[in-house]
Amino acid sequence: MILENCNECYHCGPVHPELCALVPAFARGGGDLDWDAGIPHRDGAWTFTVTGTTSRAPFPGLSGKARTRHHGELVLPNLMLSLSADHVAAFTVWPHDAGHTTVVCDFLFHPDEIGRDGFDPGDAVAFWDLVNRQDWSICEQVQDGMRSRMFTTGYLAPMEQPSADVGRYVSARLPAGQIPDH
Ligand SMILES: [Fe+2]
Question: What pTM, to 2 d.p., does this model score?
């Protein structure tokens, strides 16, 4: 469910107001975003920090668009990547059982930036901490709902096929007899 949440952004409008202020397209068309081209920030912003800017330099070798657009990728089974021009937020998901998962959030910066006097990752970390807590909270709420005795099946719309991929990936790897019917 955490991976499915990562794979769709129509929750972004109501759940992530600060993120949508930075990337307005997330609020407008969360289910129909061109991730291959990258998602543009609002004018004047180019990275995932509270201000949308930072004193860190972009990674060397990025094209003009890559310096101003956000990219993301889910790598099954358990890696979520969010790529800003100056830092990468890399999440690894470690399930313990059906109800408990540890999500490790690592921040990656260029070694030259890390070695600079006064290097401070706090602007990116603070922003991600806010967004992460919003995501984990709604994931917990969805899980609470799925525990209800009334819950039998979830339905996915055509725009949710990337999320359906997560279920297909997991189902194909479960032993016969453990494949859920939803
Ligand atoms: Fe989210």
Answer: 0.90
